[in-house]
Design goal:
By secondary structure, the protein is an alpha+beta fold. It contains 14 helices and 19 strands. The chain has three domains: 81 residues, Uridine Diphospho-n-acetylenolpyruvylglucosamine Reductase, domain 2 (2-Layer Sandwich); 111 residues, Uridine Diphospho-n-acetylenolpyruvylglucosamine Reductase, domain 3, CATH 3.30.465.10; 197 residues, 3-Layer(aba) Sandwich (Vanillyl-alcohol Oxidase, Chain A, domain 3). Helix content is 26%, strand content 23%. α11 packs antiparallel against α12. The protein is globular.
Length: 455
């Protein structure tokens, strides 16, 4: 195709030996065959890709890390703008900031910033891309201390649907800066991001305690988190151990002095009789990889999510009973505690509006054999439906699959109308649309989710 001579990167087509590998994304459920994959090296490459896609009327997908559960990093019959070679990372230790390319992964960013004892709120899997994660909000280990990833976004460079490169921050294109902090990939191709950094580590108290599956452990967890300081985050999950036996795990990370962390975590570690207790001082880089082994690339995944304003006894009992029926040993149910610095940002200060939620609840169905798909998807949907009466309004956009327009509206909540107006300004034709799509206010007749994709 003509694009090959127009970019400095490589264009991969179906006949090329790299194609099968290049089209794969993290979620093994996704099996799409693009017409071409353009591995961009420069911003000029990105602009050329947008121009080519417009000229040839091709659907477009934008790939950063490729971790999006819905698989929006790849599309059938279209052009994938692959940013994975855009790996520039520049740390300013004096200003405590970092600027990174749109293809950088969290493990790569963490390794660079930790050279100076700095970090920002990042993904729970080191192979997650920084861009898509941040644009959707960004829930991570440091969020109770420093807010979401989007709360730490200082500026970005973005190529719009018109092929214009814009700088966005608090003073330049301020409306778009607001929209990028939670509005997903609706407004263009983000080629670089600048984050506020904080003094973190290099060693934190972190790790997990595991107990036999019981409602009692979850009730203890709920009560323990009620008085937890902002420096502490404890995720809990219903899963299965290496022996296949159901259990409850509580993964703790304390962002502060080691002695303080050991004191704060003493009640957690002294509760009951843990099967395993591996909480100990760990390098921050190790903490950021604790989850990686549980979510290998290529496994089939189907997720459903809620926000909760409280973790009721009824919800606890329902979750425990449902997990006993999970058809796969790889499935789990996770609770992510919010609050702290997240809740001190106003609902309309960023596009991410779900500031009052106490927990994000995630139902993670995972399996390997394609013949088991129906049973695993049904299990996740049924549990999600039974929990719905107990859920708060809204849903975390980064956890959405292809769930229909109403769930997309739920994800953007009270900020949807403003986001739609900004979409009209920067993407009036809805060029980027096979994402969790915000339709332009000026083009309400356009079908949601039809031709173009982002992350």
């Amino acid at each position: 195709m003509a694009l090959k001579s127009a970019i400095s990167g490589r264009v991969i087509e179906p006949q090329d030996f790299e194609y099968e590998r290049a089209r794969r994304v993290w979620n093994g459920m996704i099996d799409r065959r693009p017409a071409a994959i353009a591995r961009c090296v420069t911003v000029g490459d990105v602009i050329a890709c947008i121009e080519a896609a417009r000229s040839d009327r091709l659907p477009v997908a934008i790939r950063g890390g490729g971790h999006n559960i819905a698989g929006n990093a790849v599309c059938d019959g279209g052009l994938v703008i692959d940013l994975s070679l855009m790996k520039q990372i520049v740390v300013d230790p004096k200003a405590q900031t970092v600027r990174a390319g749109g293809g950088v992964l969290w493990g790569e960013l963490d390794a660079s910033t930790q050279q100076y004892g700095l970090a920002t709120t990042g993904g729970l899997m080191s192979t997650t891309g920084i861009a898509g994660f941040t644009l959707g909000g960004g829930l991570g280990h440091l969020m109770r201390s420093y807010g979401l990833a989007c709360d730490n976004l200082l500026s970005a460079q973005i190529v719009t649907a018109a092929g214009r490169l814009l700088t966005v921050n608090r003073t330049e294109n301020h409306d778009l800066y607001w929209a990028l902090r939670g509005g997903g990939g609706n407004f263009g191709v983000v080629t670089s991001l600048e984050f506020q950094l904080h003094s973190v580590g290099p060693v934190l108290v972190g790790g997990s305690v595991f107990h036999p599956l019981s409602a009692e452990t979850l009730r203890f967890y709920r009560n323990f988190m009620t008085s937890a300081p902002d420096a502490l985050i404890v995720y809990t999950g219903l899963g299965r151990g290496p022996d296949g036996v159901a259990r409850v795990g509580m993964r703790a990370v304390f962002n502060g002095p080691l002695n303080d962390g050991e004191e704060v975590l003493r009640p957690l570690r002294s509760f009951g009789s843990p099967i395993v207790d591996d909480i100990r001082p760990r390098p921050y880089l190790e903490v950021q990889r604790l989850v990686d082994p549980s979510f290998p690339p290529g496994r089939r995944n189907y997720w459903k999510a809620h926000f909760l304003t409280e973790l009721s006894d009824d919800a606890i009992i329902l979750a425990v009973e449902a997990f006993r029926r999970a058809p796969s040993r790889y499935s789990s149910i996770a609770l992510e505690p919010m609050g702290g610095s997240i809740a001190r940002v106003g609902v309309t200060e960023t596009a991410f509006s779900h500031r009052a939620a106490r927990y994000s609840l995630l139902i993670l169905a995972g399996w390997e054999d394609a013949s088991e798909t129906e049973a695993n998807v049904l299990w996740a949907r049924e549990l999600w439906g039974r929990l719905q009466p107990m859920a708060a309004a809204g849903v975390y956009v980064n956890y959405l699959g292809g769930e229909g327009e109403q769930r997309v509206r739920d994800a953007y909540g009270p900020n949807l109308a403003r986001l739609s107006e900004i979409k009209s300004k920067y993407d009036p034709e809805n060029f980027f649309r096979m994402n969790q799509n915000i339709r332009p206010a000026s083009a309400e007749g356009l079908a949601s989710g039809s031709s173009h994709a982002h992350r």
